[in-house]
Amino acid sequence: MALKVLEDKDTSKIIGESWVTARFEDLEDWAQRNSFWPFPFGTACCAIEFMSTLSSHYDVARFGSEVVRFSPRQSDVLLVAGTINDKMAPVLKKIYDQMADPKWVISMGACACSGGFYRAYHVMQGIDEIIPVDVYVPGCPPTPEGLMYGILQLKERVSRDRKKHRALVARAAGQAQEEISDRVDARPASA
Amino acid sequence: MSQPLASDPMPSMPSTPPPGRPVLKNPYPPHPTSTRPYRPGLAERLYLPLLSGLMVTMRHFLKNLFGAKMYTIQYPEERRDYSHRFRGHHILTTRPDGSVRCVACFLCAQACPAECIQIEAGEHPDVNIEKYPVVYEIDMLRCIFCGYCVDACPEEAIIMSNNYDMAYFTREQSIVGKGDLMKPFTFDENLLGYRPRYPEEEAKRAKMRRDAFNLVDEAKKARAREELAAATAAKAGAGR
Amino acid sequence: MSTLAPPLPETASAPVAWDAVREKFPAGSIIPQEGLDQPTWIVRREVLLDLARELRDNPATQFDLMLDLCGVDFPDRAPRFDAVYHLYSVPNAKRLRLKVPVGEDQPLPSLIPVWKAANWFERELYDMFGLQVTGHPNLRRILCHEGFQGYPLRKDYDAARRWILTEDKIYQPHFDLPAGADDMFERMTVNIGPSHPAMHGTFRLMAVLDGETIVASDVEIGYLHRCFEKMSETHNWQQVIPYTDRLNYCSSFINNVGYCRTVEQLLKVEVPPRAVWARTILSEFSRIMDHCVCNGSTLVDAGALSNFWYFFQPREEIYGLLESCCGARLTVSYGRIGGLSQDLPPDFMERSRRLLEIIPPFIEDVEKLIDKNRIWQDRTVGIAALSGEEAVNWGWTGPCLRASGVAYDVRRAHPYDLYDTVDWEVPVLYGGDVYDRYRIRMLEIRQSLKIIRQLLDRGMPEGPFITDDPHVALPPKEACYNQMEAMIYHFKLIMDGIQVPAGEVYSMVEGANGELGFYTISDGSSRPYRIKVRPPCFPIFSAFSRLINGGSLSDAIVSLGGLNVIAGELER
Fold first, then answer.
1. Nearest-angstrom CA–CA distance, C209 and C215
2. What are phi and psi of B5, to 5 degrees?
3. A174 pLDDT more than 90
4. CB-CB: which of C147, C152, C194 is closest to A121?
5. Which residues, 6+ apart, have CB-to-CB distance to C547 below 8 Å?
6. Of A28, B119, B206, C75, which has the highest C-beta tally within 10 A?
7. By the 8 A CB rule, do C146 and C165 touch?
8. Which of C435, C444, C428, C72 is nearest to C291 (CA)?
């Protein structure tokens, strides 16, 4: 949480020096990133490693992911674990579209990131063909610690992205609502 | 062959037929044509075994509450102790002068099932080391961490570390080049993973070398003794 | 528990009786092919249906289990395709392979009237090769999506050519249901999955519900079809091993062993005793892991969450052992053709013994919670029951079959590795329902622990961990660094690959779900010509509609869990 202690002498004279202030957005960000509820879109072996991450040995609930919600409306991180092939692609897109903003996508494992070693006639070569991905976690499957590292990286990005999102919205004040949301959806994958 | 159980409902079949009697054509029991589901006992129907189940969960609960050892590994402060064979991030090893050990023989690129290693070879000024990789890139998002590249390398130029902390924000970031793969020569043994030679095998090889050395040493001493004996025998013979 | 009677000695096998079966058909329509690993007949497609019926019903042959059906493409030959049937006689423990040469426009008769297992296999044959099957009620694609064009396993199909599936082409089910007289209430068709927690992520169940009862249902698979068989044709023999890991990813080492055994049989190379010992022990640990996941997930689907945590702890401990051997937890790639990839670590025995002490308390905890729990029994006893005879006709093998009263276990009927040198039982139960499938996995975990304990007591054999044939296994690294000869073998093995002599073999191991078979054809080059995986859960899952029709939706969820369908293996 980014707390800014007031430096302004006038204000500190008024309200004394035992107060700290912060922006509400920072509080919102802090709450958001410490309560990621993942939607485990698990198809293959990475889903088993995700199950291990949920289990008592690694326990991703320590990072706020106490519940895994299998409903897109009730979750905010789409965790794609496992190979997505061309038959599953419309399903994945539908789930992504049904998720409510703000949402993030973690692509776990080589197959979800890039198709892995399946350069084949039925395998999608990475889910970023159809949905924007925030964090790519490599590994085949990534160890639970590797996945948690990815989640922690996403947490940092949550703060950064929201600032950027705020900047975009503030800058685009006065423009039509659809244009803003288009831009938000198509936000570049790079920071 | 195992002995049938004493309480075996099936008639016990000998493993070899007794001599003189015809082998039965079909000692196998016919497939059941109907099912015989489990019949719960009275206690089970009265929900009584639920109590023993509750005792199990209560036992775990109390054990965890009052200071038992928790299985949870508190990542990122604690990390699991993986073995030194762990297949993690790759390392391109270096020679003592800091240059890359790889000679761009393309064996790793050939062995890789995911075709994630891209190499461009260049000529090395030293004529004993003919080639070196100008470009050596591994696409970490394609890599399946199988270790075939390590198995294939004849120079021990590529090994794996026990680092699994990798996450990328873009596809471009995930293509790791030569600079990021190389590590200085004096790296920490604890950071290494899957590689051709392990410490326990070092001990085995050292022992073999020691044994071989001892054998050679003893052979030399035995020969010296024989020569001495032969020399004294010859002197004694000549002296007479 | 009863044990399977040992297989009949060879003198009692009846090739003579089989000749009598052959002679019932017109001369020249069935030609035996000599010199292969199992009896093989080349059959004309006109007599196929009658031959199949005869083989199943004739008491001399009794081929009651249809294991596999696959196609092979020989583009330079006319007729172009071979449809290969693998049959098994459970009472006699005998195998037979039928090869039916067909051209592109020649339809095959459907064998569904003889073996219900043929249903999905014939659909796959159509999907992959484009072979028509007459008499099939539902001949459409099963693994590839509906917008797919072309037949991928044909040799002229480019492995990387993809087709996009658009929304309009997605399969909508069509049920032909007779309108009931008291059909006052609406029947609703519900789509469950593929992205559904109880569907284990990749199965789509379309059920017509009348209230809570399932009146009709259809299952759609193919959401994890990863083209293993095509990938195996584009990679060399050693590179296929990581692909086999990802078949049944819950017990990946068993797949490695199955594949390596197949290639070793083609190469006629012998595996050193140390590797055989390690393979047996690690296979049994993998089996324990798989049963833990299966039962854990089933219990989660039914609402009993604590057992999931209890079951995953033994898995973590076994992961530690596997990781200390080869460096990876789940997808191990530890087997190599001829042995293992690396030697066992020095603390292998101590770690394994420690595992034998750690695992039983967790299993006992779950048993105390669940076994005699009336809530669980009400949920599962009598649900999705299938008799042994019908299960065999559906092509079932493995724990699901043994829960229906048929004591067929590959490790006992056709022993391999060290299974016939240790004392263990094949557990059999007679309920055929979800409860017995759960129970039998717990019994099998105990048997696996027993096998491991005996092997550990026997001690680790000394010696190499891989064959020393330089045309098969990479030479040890010290030799490679120091000797020119070893370096040359190393170079040739990596660049050209293992050259496997031409031939074909079907070899099987007991996977955690049943008989995992690899039918491998080599044309003498460094790449496989055709590898067909006989996935144990393919025929098991094909019976799912039969199991759930008439039951309630919650029964369907629990029975899916009990079948242990692993999508990686189902759809390769």
1. 6
2. -65, 150
3. no
4. C152
5. C384, C386, C559
6. B119
7. yes
8. C444
Q: Give B206's contacts (C-beta < 8 A, 6+ positions apart).
A: none
* Phi then psi dihedrals of residue A86, to 5 deg: -65, -25
Peptide bond into B76 cis (omega under 30): yes
d(CA C507, CA C515): 10
Is A82 within 8 Å of A45 (Cβ atoms)?
yes
Q: Are C380 and C433 in contact (CB under 8 A)?
A: yes
Q: Structure pTM?
A: 0.87
Judge contact between C221 and C541, C-beta under 8 A. yes
Task: Quote the CA–CA distance of C442 and C311 in Å, as a whole number.
Answer: 11
The answer to whether the beta carbons of residues C404 and C432 sit under 8 Å apart is yes
Closest chain C C-alpha to A70 CA, distance in angstroms: 7
Find the closest chain A residue to B117 by CA distance.
Answer: A117
Integer Cα distance of C517 and C536 in angstroms: 8
Is the Cβ–Cβ distance between A186 and A132 less than 8 Å? yes
Q: Which chains touch C (3 or more CB pairs under 8 A)?
A: A, B
H-only helix segments in C192-341: 228-234, 240-245, 252-267, 273-302, 306-326
Q: Where do we find the tokens 């670590």?
A: C345
Tell me the β-bridge partners of B137.
B118
Query: What tokens were used for C479?
Result: 């030799």
Concatenated DSSP letters for A3-45?
Answer: -B----HHHHHHH-SS--B--HHHHHHHHHHT---EEEEE-SH
Tens of pLDDT along B97-122? 888 899 999 999 999 999 999 999 99
Residue C541, H or E segment: helix C537-542
Spatial distance between the Cα atoms of C315 and C28, rounded to a whole number of angstroms:
55
CB contact under 8 A, B31 and C323: no
- Confirm or reject contact between A44 and chain C (CB < 8 A): yes
CA B107/CA C495 separation, integer angstroms: 7
- Chain B interface includes C462 (CB < 8 A): no
**Could you give the CA distance from residue A185 to residue A102 in angstroms, rounded to a whole number?**
10
Q: Are C501 and C522 in contact (CB under 8 A)?
A: yes
Q: For C385-401, what is the HEC assignment? A: CCCHHHHHHCCCCCHHH
Residue of chain C whose alpha carbon sits nearest to that of A44: C568
| Max Cα–Cα distance, chain B, nearest Å | 110
Regions of chain C short of the pLDDT cut 70: 1-15, 179-185, 198-199
Residue B150: both structure tokens together: 């390590």
For residue C491, is it left (φ>0), alpha (ψ between -120 and 50) or beta? alpha
